[in-house]
Recover the amino acids of this structure.
């Protein structure tokens, strides 16, 4: 479905920009999550290859979102077979 291409693309950009990354995979349930952190912003990408729409509680204020995501409050829904992303406020490390 092309998620490997997106992962390589994002990894290359993040490496050049010196951005931290976090990955979570729930392959059994068809979910792959990747997070990037830059300063006080965190971008959350969710790849949903499960057989149903999935809703995720991001637990943080959503600043922006896109792709095939719907956001209500701090919850993001990604339709089956789609990718969604949201930008949230990151916890600033001292």
């Amino acid at each position: 479905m092309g998620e490997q291409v997106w992962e390589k693309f994002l990894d290359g950009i993040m490496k050049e920009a010196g951005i931290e990354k976090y990955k979570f995979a729930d392959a059994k349930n068809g979910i792959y999550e990747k997070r990037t952190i830059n300063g006080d912003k965190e971008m959350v990408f969710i790849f949903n290859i499960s057989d149903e729409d999935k809703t995720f509680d991001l637990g943080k204020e959503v600043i922006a979102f896109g792709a095939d995501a719907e956001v209500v409050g701090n919850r993001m829904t990604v339709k089956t077979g789609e990718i969604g992303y949201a930008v949230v406020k990151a916890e600033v490390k001292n």
Summary: The first strand starts at residue 20 and ends at 26. DSSP finds one helix and eight strands in the chain. The radius of gyration is 13 Å.
